[in-house]
Amino acid sequence: MPSTELSVEETMGGANSTAREYQSNAPVKQVIGNYSKVIGQKEERTYTNRNAVRIIVINAIGHMAVLEDKDKSYYSLPNGIVAYDADHQNAGEESVKEQLGCEVVVYEECIAAAEEWRGDLHQQSFCYVARMMEDKEKTELLSVEGRDGLQIMWVEVNEAIGMMKKSKPTSELGKSVRERDLFFVKEYDRLLWSGGLRAMYDDWFKV
After folding, report:
1. What are phi and psi of 192, to 5 degrees?
2. Within a domain: residue 79?
3. How many domains does the chain have?
4. Which of 57, 77, 89, 90 gives the lowest tally of CB atoms within 10 Å of its CB?
């Protein structure tokens, strides 16, 4: 089972990574967007390696879930740490259920990835899109309190981008989270408008 992170603070980044390197380190089936984002720089030290999934959860009215940690002044996507050989779809669905308290279906294609070197941690994060499996009335809530005091906000994609851009994290960890998750949301928005996600939405909403 994946372990969701207890704070909006997280990790990612890397140095000069390629799609091939990513695919050799995690069970990613297919990538449809700009694959890599590098944060931080690899140094001559021993690192702890881990993989994570980041999930863009879309509800029945097209809004996405954003986690707000008011004490740390930044926003994050629903997420979870996953085992090296874990199935990312299953891990993402379990993580979202634990963090948001709702059932989702995660689309199998990874839309973007990021690698981070921060302190003694080396993390690779993989972003997926998920559809919320709830009735419309329940998904129209704009803001509810989630696990560990994190505020769950349902906002339009452009609003999420604006919120993340304006956030001012004070820790190095928070700055990494902001850079990574903003990249993921912007990439989702780009794919949405360019038609890169058409196959996914056609599959989701076919009669």
Report:
1. -60, -45
2. yes
3. 1
4. 90
Is residue 184 one of the residues assigned to a domain? yes
Whether 2 maps to a domain, the answer reads no
Would you write out the chain's pLDDT as a tens digit for each of its 207 residues?
454 443 344 433 333 333 333 443 455 555 555 567 888 889 999 999 999 999 999 998 889 999 987 666 899 999 999 988 889 999 999 999 988 888 999 998 899 999 998 889 999 999 999 999 865 445 444 445 555 567 899 999 999 999 999 999 988 888 899 999 999 999 999 998 888 787 777 776 654
- Sorted by sequence, the CB contacts under 8 Å of residue 83 that are 6+ apart come out as 2, 51, 91
Q: What range defines the domain where residue 100 resides?
A: 19-200
Strand partners, 31: 110
| CATH number of the domain where residue 44 is located | 3.90.79.10
Q: In angstroms, rounded to a whole number, what is the distance separating the alpha carbons of residues 113 and 207?
A: 32
Helices (H), the chain: 19-25, 88-100, 136-139, 157-166, 172-194, 198-205
Cβ atoms of 115 and 38 closer than 8 Å: yes
pTM of the model: 0.79
Q: Phi then psi for 83, rounded to 5 degrees?
A: -65, 160
Q: Which two tokens stand for residue 172?
A: 């190095």
